[in-house]
């Protein structure tokens, strides 16, 4: 079968096949030094079709499918576009951006990532004062898409965790409105009911379309979803 320039078969589905009742679930026994929560996490990973499909296709994380599903629905990654990937580690979203035609990808994360051809990576905290300037220098011009899959370490206190999450979303949004080209797209992970109050109002004022989406790859038990704002209206 003929393949396209990426080496992949055209029309090949990226959606992993779901396990059926006939597929035997992998059960993990609790080891002496493994906590119950660690055992549950490991068992979930071993039985997750997205994990297996990510390994098969060479994606660095199952989260790559979240961006694939968001872009399949909204089609915001265009050939030749410039993409900024906030919270890039381990690199799955940057891989998808390149695969879908982005000509320039700038990733940033506090954690390191293995080198990824075609990606300019900055290892730094986005909340540092010098991070936005460093990103702008790496871009060289405006961005077509700003992606944020950032999430803070949770403390277990719902209200505090929500405030920390929204602080990241708001910081990413403020950055996006400074660097996006007209017609650009902002995508961000959010939790607990979506973008809140004033932020959502600003998004609807700054973008033509704002949607909350929970992609199929996002686990049902997770409170995460994504806000996708398209058609940025550059202010005078």
Strand content: 15-25%
Mind telling me the C-alpha Rg? 19 Å
Largest sheet: 7 strands, mixed
The assembly state of the depicted protein chains is: single chain
Q: Say which CATH homologous superfamily of the largest domain is assigned.
A: Vaccinia Virus protein VP39
Number of helices: 7
Overall spatial form: globular
CATH topology of the largest domain: Rossmann fold
CATH architecture descriptor text of the largest domain: 3-Layer(aba) Sandwich
Helix-strand pattern: HHHEHEEHEHEHEE
Strand arrangement, major sheet = 3-2-1-4-5-7-6
Per DSSP E runs of 2 or more residues, the count of β-strands stands at 7
CATH top level of the largest domain is Alpha Beta
Task: Report low-confidence residues grouped into runs of 5 or more.
Answer: 1-13, 18-24
User: Roughly what percent helix?
Assistant: 25-40%
Distance between the termini: 51 Å
Number of domains: 2
Class based on secondary structure composition and strand pairing: alpha/beta
For the residues shown, what is the average pLDDT? Answer: 83
Q: How does the SSE layout of this entry go?
A:
Layout: H1 36-46, H2 49-57, H3 64-74, E1 82-86, H4 92-99, E2 104-109, E3 119-123, H5 131-139, E4 143-148, H6 158-179, E5 180-191, H7 197-206, E6 207-213, E7 224-232
Parallel strand pairs: 1-2, 1-4, 2-3, 4-5
Antiparallel strand pairs: 5-7, 6-7
Helix pairs in contact: 3-4
